[in-house]
Amino acid sequence: MNLTILKPEKGPGGKLVEIHGAGLAQAEQVWFGQELAQITRRMDDGLISVRAPEQDEKGQVDVRIVDAQGNASNGLQYHYM
Question: What pLDDT is recorded for position 79?
Answer without folding.
Answer: 98
